[in-house]
Amino acid sequence: MLSVQHRFARILTTAVHEVSLATSVLDTVERLVAGGVIETVRVAVGELSAVEPELLAFAWEAVVSGTRHQHSRLEVDWIPARQTCPRCRVEVQRSPGQWHFSCERCGSPLAIEGGYEMDIMEVTFRQAAPEAED
Ligand SMILES: [Zn+2]
Prior knowledge:
This protein is of the alpha+beta class and 134 residues long. It is 32% helix and 25% strand. The strands form 2 sheets. It has a 3-stranded mixed sheet with strand order 2-1-6. β1, α3 and β2 form a beta-alpha-beta unit. It is elongated. The model has no long low-confidence stretch (mean pLDDT 87). Zinc ion binds next to loops. Zinc ion binds at residues 85, 87-88, 103, 105-106, 108.
């Protein structure tokens, strides 16, 4: 119990954003499963959403700890932003965190598409046993 509190305290000081997101994902999913027990939640997190996937998964563990969903897992699909040239209509190859200023072929400024996702994609759950688990 102490270690959970310790971890939660650490999260609170480092990842307030992720904790509040995890809390709101839990609120939404709890309404969705209507009394069921959550097994996995898969969320899409965009590169530009300012969410750290690892911190979000960690925040989830803290948020569900002590609830009937405490064995559930949060899976994060990382969605990179895409840089495209509006003139050549091609997508520029890039690594995460690496940005290009202009198209290598024609020099046009590049457009950015996507990367702001923060969506609940899939939820698995089971019906709660008739007698309460804890
Ligand atoms: Zn171009």
